[in-house]
Amino acid sequence: MHPLVDDLNIVEPVGPLSKETKNYIDLLKRKLESISQELENQKRVNTGIQVQKMVSEEKNDLLDYLRSLAPEKVAELSQPTSPEVEDVIQHVIDELIDNPSTNLQHKGNQSGSQTGALSSSWDGNFIHECSSSPLKSQAAVTVSRDYLARLLFWCMLLGHHMRGLEYRLELSRALSLSGDVGWTIEDRKY
After folding, report:
1. Fewer beta carbons under 10 A from the terminal one: N or C of the chain?
2. How many structural domains comprise the chain?
3. Which Pfam families match (predicted)?
C-alpha cells in the first residue's frame, strides 16, 4: 500500500463518517493504489528504455578502429601467415562448436530443416561431422552477446600473440640461416 493510505488509517475522525464518505475514501484509496502501481510500472519501462539507449550508444573503440581500416588491411590482418596459426584458429573454432554451453543447430542439405539444439542432447559424432565437413552441412552456433564479445576479444588477443610468435620465429630462422645465432634458450636465462 501507498504510505498516504496508511496515514489515512491513523487519523482519528472528527466525528462519525457517513457511509458515502467512507465509500468515497475507499474509492480514493483504490485510485491512489492504482496510480501508484501505474507509476511504478512506468518507472520500470523508462529504466528499461534508458538501459537500451545506453547500450546502443555505447562506444566501442575497437569496432570503430576496425571500421576505419581499408578493406585490404582488414583482409591482410585476418589472414594467417603460417599453417600452424591456421591450425590453432581451426582448433579454437572446433572448441567453440564442441562446447556444450553453446546452442548448436544443424541445417542439412535436405530442405534446410533444422534439428533441435544439441546442448541438451549431446552427440559428439554429429558435432564432429558439422565441424569437419563444412560442404556437407552447416552449423549455426547461438551464444549471448557478452559471450561473443569475450570470444572475439580472446581470439584477437590470441591472434596478436600468435603473430608476435610468428615474427619471433621468422627472426630466429633468418638469424640461424645467416649463422649469427650463437646462443640458445638456456643462455638467455639470467
Report:
1. C
2. 1
3. DUF760
